[in-house]
Amino acid sequence: MAVSDHVFLESEAFRTQADYATAKAIAEDLARHYPGHAWAVNVEAANGIATIQNFHLSTRYGFLLHLRGRRGDHALPVLLHNAKMAAGEFLERYKLPRGAYRGGDYPQVAADLGPVLP
After folding, report:
1. Cβ contacts of residue 43 below 8 Å, gap of 6+?
2. What is d(CA 56, CA 24) in angstroms, rounded to the nearest whole number?
3. Is the dihedral angle over the CA atoms 44, 33, 107, 38 positive or is it negative?
4. Over the chain (118 residues), what is each successive 10-residue block's mean pLDDT?
5. What is the pLDDT of residue 90?
6. SS3 102
7. How many CB atoms lie within 10 A of CB 40?
8. pLDDT score recorded for residue 37
9. Which long-range contacts (CB under 8 A, 24 or more apart) does 21-24 make?
10. Which own/partner pairs from 105-109 qualify as long-range (CB within 8 Å, at least 24 positions apart)?
11. Which of 72, 71, 69, 96 lies closest to 80 in space, CA to CA?
């Protein structure tokens, strides 16, 4: 799967180039740190948020990331760091290790989650 395959935008007609570029940067960084996971990133700069999902885990659930850091810093390196840390925590909440996708991990997660997974 190419890195560009990790970016999914809900409706491109309503997205700006900046939103797309930011979503792509986040998705590429997540693919670098956690390769093989099906990360879906959607950025809404107008609302100050990015939503991030791992489609291997759920197509309904993910997490929300504020574009501005705790100190009001919205520089891309800070955003990428925050996304990486949040994505790692997200994996750990599903009892998965931080790191590359290992297909054998997901069937147990699906069994544990039951109806949460579509």
Report:
1. 15, 19, 20, 22, 23, 26, 49, 50, 67
2. 19
3. positive
4. 51 71 94 94 91 87 83 79 95 88 67 49
5. 92
6. coil
7. 20
8. 92
9. 22/50, 22/67, 22/76, 22/79, 23/50
10. 106/56, 106/57, 109/57
11. 69
Of the candidates 97, 77, 10, 96, the residue with the CA atom closest to the CA atom of residue 47: 10
What is the pTM (predicted TM-score) of this model? 0.76
Give the position of tokens 């939503």: 51
Which residue type is seen at 26? I
Single-letter amino acid code for the residue at 99 = G
Residue 54 one-letter amino acid: N
Cα–Cα distances (Å) from 90 to 37, 63, 98, in that order, read: 12, 8, 9
